[in-house]
Amino acid sequence: MTSDEHNIKPTDLRGILKYVPMFRDHVFVLAIDGSLVAHENFQNVLLDIAVLRSLNIKVVLVHGVGHQLKALAEQKETAISDPHGELETDAVTLELATEAAAMVSLEVMQGLTRNGLRCATCNGVRSKEIGIFEGKDQLSSGTVDKIDEVLFNKLLDADTIPVITPIAFNREGEPLRINSDLLASELASKLKASKLIYMTTQEGLQISGQPLTNLPVADLEGLIETTKQMPTRLLSKFKHAAKAINVGTPRAHILDGRLFGALLNEIFDKVGIGTMVYSNDYQSIRRAVTADAHSIYNITQNGVRTESLRERSQESIAATIDDYLVYEIDGSIVGCVNLKIYDSGDIAEIGSVYVQAFYQNKGVGRKMVEFACAEAQARGSRRAIAVTTQASKFFSKVCAFEEGTVNELPVERCEDYAQNGRNSKVLYLDL
Ligand SMILES: CC(C)(COP(=O)(O)OP(=O)(O)OC[C@H]1O[C@@H](n2cnc3c(N)ncnc32)[C@H](O)[C@@H]1OP(=O)(O)O)[C@@H](O)C(=O)NCCC(=O)NCCS
Fold first, then answer.
1. CB neighbour burial string for 327-351, b if at least 16 within 10 angstroms, e if fewer
2. Domain identity same for 115 and 91
3. 196 and 339 co-located in one domain
4. 365 lines ligand 1 (CB under 6 A)
5. pTM score, two decimals?
């Protein structure tokens, strides 16, 4: 695909706006390869970062130095031990890496400043020596010892982008070289980022000629095992993305930053431009079976009492049990959702969303709605609708639905809507 096919048009701005409340105050860790800082499109990447900041997304920027380190070594005709901070780092390489880090950091800070953005370098990451690995002393190569969460959060709360170089001091104040992919992954986990985004100057991964747009982390781990020819630099990012996801970062993205608007398209376009890896968030959701009708009836009674849900008998739930999905924790059903696909048109209704009080505000409702939407899409629906009395803001702000009117309803639902007198709001999401 060309970058033109993905460019966000002004008319898409409304589409972007629905993501604003979704991402407000979320932390995104952005890892930018040194080669991208040197690329002509870097100026546009900076503009994209300014857009993220204007939407109140908190950005932590980690940059690499491999490209600049290799260039410096060539210029000085010096042999270096490893440009990427993965193997051992000898004294000469450390010296050049420190010089490269200062140069890149300066360039990044200058670019952010030109775009009116506050930024700061800091010693919020403490390193420690890797030591001896596979019988070999890794010299000045380091890994993350400690991340000063308080310092990072203070900077982020002060509208400041922390700019992190892959050289960090150990407890004694000695500089060590850390691989920037690893650094970004650790920061994403520690700062509870909702996205870890690697921006490279490499084409995305393709499998059998098809670009890999999104995949669950388990599939990625399978691919890492089986795909022998994955380019080394991409492999490093995929491995660190998988690591972050396995310890709680919900999503990681790997994209070719040379493409105009890659960052914004990846975040705000439904299809995206790179590869998104996501956690197996939905493993607690399953189709309901007849034996679940009793539990669904019981847990939804509270919703019926407060008029957020319509009354349904246990028999009617059992009769339409195939339309229900349930969220199970330790063998108990804590939430449910009803997915009804209408015969006419391509519309699916997401209804009877209910989460037991104790489990509310933990992302269960959002995951069930997302899962139901994906299921509806897989079954050919083009639009999901929700008809709700008390949760319209949940659908719009949390699940990115848009407010609609009764005209959005399929014909066979209109009569019921007119007669039941609930005066519910109608929302929709194009799938
Ligand atoms: C609506 C409901 C399903 C949401 O489930 P949940 O698991 O608590 O929601 P999540 O954890 O995924 O999302 C939490 C977010 O939704 C918001 N939210 C939840 N219910 C809301 C409501 N009725 N109105 C506005 N916002 C709501 C929370 O404030 C929170 O926002 P934040 O992330 O900005 O802090 C759940 O609250 C519920 O069962 N409510 C009663 C039944 C109901 O009204 N169902 C809808 C019938 S169609």
1. bbeeeebbbbbbbbebeeeebbbbb
2. yes
3. no
4. yes
5. 0.69
